[in-house]
């Protein structure tokens, strides 16, 4: 062989072979990096879809439980039950049916839309709810009654397996919630899953599929009604998905194509979210990378006779940078970009790589934003549940302490009456100058003080059945202020009233509510003693859900933070005087609770205290014709 041919072969070997090897290494690294990035993106998408599906269903269970928190369903009359169910029905879109059940599994009241136009004229919000056929009401009643009887001990709610409605063949689940006391009966609602199915259809991008499987691995929701009715079997194609405890990935064959899939269990439900895409579509950027790489290699072989060493050097550096970019992408550095200002195939490859990195980075940010939004919603729901749980716990503590106080009051009444009677008889028999009279008068005074405490205990313990009548809140507050006007003026307290415009009426007992506000004013006066600024502010406003809010703010001493949790406990007081019994706020809490309202207290030591009361509003009188 001639030297020229050998030199040509040597140039080809020294230029083309290393370039080919480097291209293959870059392609392999890019394949691994892209495969890992795509798999991670699909896992995140599956987790996001699973969390959305969980929130979509479980939030209804939370809402139903919240609606029953301070309500005894069996105590409602027919009209009250119907009004209560209508409020629950309108809280959430896509509810098909809502019903109230007694302890024998009978549906005592229900709300559903069977004539959309008639309901829309009555209430436009009914347009957002599914229409129910007559034959589907009985199916709902049967499913709800069966589910209520199967709620596990210790659980406040239960969710049925997904099913297609009897007439309209729409995907739905039944959600039931027991009352807070865990008694028989409860509240049930049928939640349509069409909106969730439509979201799954909209989440798919081109050839991408997003769908939900049930616990047995059958297709539940996919956005394709025909496939949902067929209930396709995926247990054999994705054997790890049914019963999965965490996210995972797998591949399966369908219609002659290989699909890449990631799955994630839906929290709180026996479902699995799956995101899948054909392998060739998922790895399309890698194919472009391979085509560009081998195109560059072809040009290298053509120019090797003239510029083999220089061309090899010029090719090696860009490919190395591409390989480095792929490795950065594999490490999770989605913001990495390749700066390659060239107008050849390598420049196109770098720009394609940058476009791919940017697309992955944008998708990653969107997922993070969606996760942050979900986390914010979960935290908000958690705070609401914690607040409700704290109120329930406080009521339970007051009830337990009240039982103890009831026993004490009962046992003390008889001997106390004997003491008072005997001391009064002795005082009647003793002359005014008798030295024993002063001691007996002190005994009488202290015995009367004990009697007052016993009366306070009885007021705290006995559950009052107040007559609920419409009251003018502003007039009642003004009367209480006028009654304490002399004390307020003597203490140098400036009173500011910011009442809501117009007449505000509440349902309650005039004497009991006046006593509550009188006690709160007394506490405020005590807190304002010896304060440089003595201001008392009364604010009223109409709140949501037929409630009226009353705020009483003072600039008093405030309450230490460590005492706030016990401030409503009987016999707990922050007053320095020995005469303080520590029963005033406990009595206020019991009275407001018996009125169907709430009382909360916020305070900062050295700044002041704000007491907030929520009272049920009286219905507005019909307009005069």
Output the keywords.
625 residues, single chain, 18 strands, five-stranded antiparallel β-sheet, 14 helices
Give a summary of the structure in a few sentences.
With 625 residues, this protein is α+β, with helices and mostly antiparallel strands. It has helices spanning 3-67, 78-91, 116-122, 134-148, 194-203, 225-230, 279-282, 284-330, 345-429, 436-461, 473-483, 485-490, 510-528, 584-594; strands at residues 95-101, 107-112, 157-159, 163-164, 171-177, 186-192, 209-213, 219-221, 248-254, 257-265, 272-278, 469-472, 494-498, 505-508, 535-543, 547-554, 598-604, 608-616.
Descriptive overview:
The chain is of the alpha+beta class and 625 residues long. The chain has helices at 3-67, 78-91, 116-122, 134-148, 194-203, 225-230, 279-282, 284-330, 345-429, 436-461, 473-483, 485-490, 510-528, 584-594; strands at 95-101, 107-112, 157-159, 163-164, 171-177, 186-192, 209-213, 219-221, 248-254, 257-265, 272-278, 469-472, 494-498, 505-508, 535-543, 547-554, 598-604, 608-616. Strand 17 (598-604) and strand 18 form a beta hairpin. Helix 1 packs across helix 8, helix 1 runs parallel beside helix 9 (345-429) and helix 9 (345-429) packs antiparallel against helix 10 (436-461). The model is unreliable at 576-580 (pLDDT under 50).
